């Protein structure tokens, strides 16, 4: 997270975490977790989530270590069994090649230097490790909806800068990572009454509001 983002997540950590227990939060968390899970569970330990927040995804996906610059969310993550480390994704406090998986879930849109975070993730990955990125494409209906919320003052989304899938893939290429799989969900728009019928699909589906991409070191 950038310096302007951390105070928001510090002061509103409980509000952020409580959203996951709302009807919308439970639905989206279930879909996004289902999208990510097959890409994460096939890896061995240890696994690291960069931008772990309150630990919802780490706990659900069996990720042992969570890093975040915001202290209050880390306290919540610790209650969910995550071993927490305070730090920035642009300068990970870990040795080279120690993790079998590094996971970033809607993280790169909140950091100062997305390319630096991906390079650091690449550095701490084992040669046979896997990077998993969960993202909301900027050019999807969901990305546009979140950006509009940010423009109208939403405390979290106003600090976000969403990237397209193509921009994420360029970051992987620049970090010498090779995409090796993808899954997609949220094909319906945010206000679609059929959202509860949404499913998860293998591969990249154009227009999907949430895409999980996995990549390996070249």
Helix content: 25-40%
Helices and strands, in order, run as: HHHEHEHEEHEHHEEE
Strand segment count: 8
> How many helix segments?
8
Distance between the termini: 27 Å
Strand order of the largest sheet: 3-2-1-4-5-8-6-7
Average pLDDT value? 95
Biggest sheet overview? 8 strands, mixed
In one word, what is the shape? Answer: globular
Describe the SSE topology:
Blueprint: H1 6-11, H2 13-19, H3 23-41, E1 47-50, H4 56-61, E2 65-68, H5 71-79, E3 83-86, E4 99-105, H6 114-124, E5 125-135, H7 141-151, H8 165-174, E6 177-185, E7 201-202, E8 210-217
Parallel strand pairs: 1-2, 1-4, 2-3, 4-5
Antiparallel strand pairs: 5-8, 6-7, 6-8
Folded structure, characterized:
The protein is α/β, with parallel strands linked by helices. 36% of the residues lie in helices and 22% in strands. It is built from eight helices and eight strands, in the order αααβαβαββαβααβββ. The chain has helices at 6-11, 13-19, 23-41, 56-61, 71-79, 114-124, 141-151, 165-174; strands spanning 47-50, 65-68, 83-86, 99-105, 125-135, 177-185, 201-202, 210-217. The chain has an eight-stranded mixed β-sheet with strand order 3-2-1-4-5-8-6-7, with helices on both faces. The chain is globular, with a radius of gyration of 16 Å. The model has no long low-confidence stretch (mean pLDDT 95).
